[in-house]
Amino acid sequence: MTIEAQVLSVEQHSCAGTYGLMEVEKRMNNSVPRIAIIGCGAVTEHRYLPVLAEMGIKPTLLVDINLQRARKLADAFNASRISDDYRSQGEFDAAIVASPHYLHAPVGIDLLRRGIHVLVEKPMALAATECDEMIAAAEESKAVLAVGLMRRFIRNAQWVNAALDADLLGPIESFDFREGVIYDWPVASAFFFHKETAGGGVLIDTGAHTLDLLLWWMGDVASFEYYDDSYGGVEAECELLLTLASGATGVVELSRTRELRNTAILRGRRGEIEIGLGGKKYVAANPKEILAYTNGTVRSDPQLQQLYSELFPLQIKDWLRAIETRATPFVPGTVAARSVALIEACYKQRRLLELPWVRPNGRKTQG
Amino acid sequence: MITGKKVLITGATGFIGGRLVEKLILYHDANVRVLIRNFARASRIARFHVEMIGGSITDAQAVDEAVAGCDTVFHCAHDFMGKNAQQNLDGARTLADACLRHGIRRFVHVSTISVYEPLSDGDVDESTPPKSTSWTYPVNKLAIENLFLQYWEKYNLPVIVIQPTIVYGPFGGYWTDTQVKMMRAFRLALPIGGLCNPVYVDDVVDALILAARTEEVVGERFLISGAKPITWREFFGAYERMLGINFVAPMNTEEIKQTEHSTMLNNGIISNLKLLRRDPRLAAHRLVRRKPVNKLYKLAQSLMGKNFARPVSKALPAPLYVPDEQLLALYGARASVKIDKARRLLGYAPAFDFDRGMSLTAQYVKWANL
What is the CATH number that goes with domain A155-303+334-352? Predict the structure, then answer.
């Protein structure tokens, strides 16, 4: 499917304008699957539950090891039942897996093998082999596996992809991705900051999105160097120096402790594009005429800001559409597995990113 | 000794507590546990293998869980919101009770030089009597350190109180991050001749660790500062050079007192006229903030974009920031903090002179895009 057709498909089936509330409600009564949400952390509280409520969908089951929290959210969002074990309550057809990262794969594989459709939060898994198992399980049971890389629903990101496909920049020679904010996501537990449960820090969290876009736009990585500032915990800063299979070279810098430029710059032989990352409203091109490029419904819009709260509904509707029509979701497991593999390789080859004030006297032990 | 020992840090997501986590693990192989009120702020310390317990210091159950099994407790937490002063005091009591229950070996409390505010000219040491003031921060911090010392006197809780001076450095709270942001937006009305007692954050953290390791000393307060005072003009001058910005507007204290407080907010005609006479460019800056003028300004901005905004914003000087009463007293005092007691009893010796501390701070400021 071409990007234009894909986007059209997503928009036709997913956007509120064409898939209005009455329509959603009508379908819900008939064919919207019974949905469980596994994991009642911040993303469930602040994104999935409000979005489902907005869509008029009542989750069948909320699962969390912390039953008190599950109860609190169930009461607030009118969910039917709660449990501390998703296996104990089998009455659902589809599940949003928003558990700690290390559980994405085992829970996802188990559900998919039972034919339950899965929308798994990013990162899809901690290792490429786990992704393979999830994909295989979905193929075998014919369940739908979608991954929560909702930045692919950003229209300007789709436009960048289309512009590159149309070769507007010529061969890409270099790129520069910088994404960093002082972290303030209202995490509900410490899982996010432990290597064992989160799998890593800013690379596997923010980087799951950033690297997914990079791979989507520019293709596979040939070689890389990776640096981060972990001293046994999860990194807050990382830097990735990449050479792509196409020969393009560039850098990806990510941070949880400082504000970075929050854009990606893609430089081709005939021009360059700069686009906002992490929710920043920005798209620019040199020469400016590049911005005028359209391909069907795909066009650039420098004034467009799609907040995450707007992207989650698109993602959920796309997943429901895929379940209903047995089509491939916009972000299937095969797509998300690529960035997981790169992240895994980075961690295996990591080198220490040591900032000058951390050990100003060198590494000697004091006293 | 602290190597291999379980230590608890409150306020570990803050400036001093965060650096304490780093140094305890990197240089002392301590087994660090932290009590965290807001996990979202844990990114910096999560780079290390630390045990995190969720809860505030007023949560008796969380505090008890956090203190259990610890050799040493470092109390760095403090909520700077004035309305939470009672909470700070209640939390201190909760923590002290838990430490007594669990028989911890050493309790190190991070207080502040502010307990001696308003500072007088001349030497300041631990024998300087606190003054009567209504300023919330010094009152609250003094009450907390008195509470802990009472726990030593009455119940033998092995307390040491550390009173750092003007702490600056990477991730540096008020005296680095906040000042840099202030400098980009304001000019500072600074009294001429006042003395600053700066200390690089690593020196403070080393003092905390020395306090934890000592067996001989307990129930004492220690002022911790750099080797010698400098002027506030020199302190801010280092930032000015770092940023290439003119921040300080030297004035005498009387002149500052006569200047309206917060010129940002007072838009009265009389004050505008006075300001126009004193500083026409500042008056223009204020004018642009008035609604009708601001609308025109924004319209021109939208029509002409950066071509308009750049020269206009360049021509307008940063507004003057007039320190409040407490800051003005601090900036105006010619106080010289003595660290002889810490040198003698803790073996404290500041390792960072101002130039070296500021050199590292400058690297941080650039890196952090402040």
Answer: 3.30.360.10
